[in-house]
Amino acid sequence: MTRVLAIDPTTKGFAYAVFEGPGNLLDWGLTQVMAEKKNALCLKRIEALLVRYAPDVVVLEEYDGKGSHRRPRVRSLIRSIKSFAARRYFRTRCFSRSGIRRAFAALPDTTRHPIAEEIVRRFPQLELRLPEVRKFYESEDERMSIFDAASLALTYFAAKEKRPEPLAEAA
Q1: Element (H, E) at 5
Q2: Which pTM value belongs to this model?
Q3: Which domains are present in the chain?
Q4: How far apart are CA 152 and CA 165, in angstroms?
Q5: Secondary structure letter of residue 116 according to DSSP
Q6: Are 58 and 7 in contact (CB under 8 A)?
Q7: Closest CA to 10 of 30, 36, 28, 26
Q8: Which of 59, 99, 127, 134 is deepest in the core (most CB within 10 A)?
Q9: Which pLDDT tens digit goes with each residue over 118-161?
Q10: Long-range contacts of 107-110 (CB under 8 A, 24+ apart)
Q11: Is 86 helix (H, G, I), strand (E, B) or coil?
Q12: What residues contact 157, with CB distance under 8 A and at least 6 apart?
């Protein structure tokens, strides 16, 4: 069974999800680093995850893809994670936000919150992490990054299997 470590960098650190196959969520979390050298500290924590889980592939967001609005520091962190993983002989795959939306195309709405709700439907252990739908004037809840990481991993499995049908069931 393929083990995937999906990482979603945030402004304060990163979120991750570890899957062993598309139906087995092993671990997830949100790591914050409050320091000047955020990227270096993030890489140190990611190294610990790589050692602990020994994934077959590390999955990240393709920040140049359509729909991505990543800050320069986060873009730099994604590049560093890819390089860091490659130096340690871990394969990496990247998917754009539009690629994730395509993987969940059976949902009536493929924005982040409905995708997160679909992930909770499949993995009820994440239910307590799901934030309320945000108002347009509110900042994004950091817990959404856990669902972004999970959606990256599930998109990887969908692409790997070259599924003709999307990940979600039609409502």
Answers
A1: strand 3-9
A2: 0.89
A3: 3-161 (3.30.420.10)
A4: 17
A5: H
A6: yes
A7: 30
A8: 59
A9: 999 999 999 999 988 888 888 888 999 999 999 999 999 999 87
A10: 107/166, 107/168, 107/171, 108/171
A11: helix
A12: 2, 4, 19, 21, 22
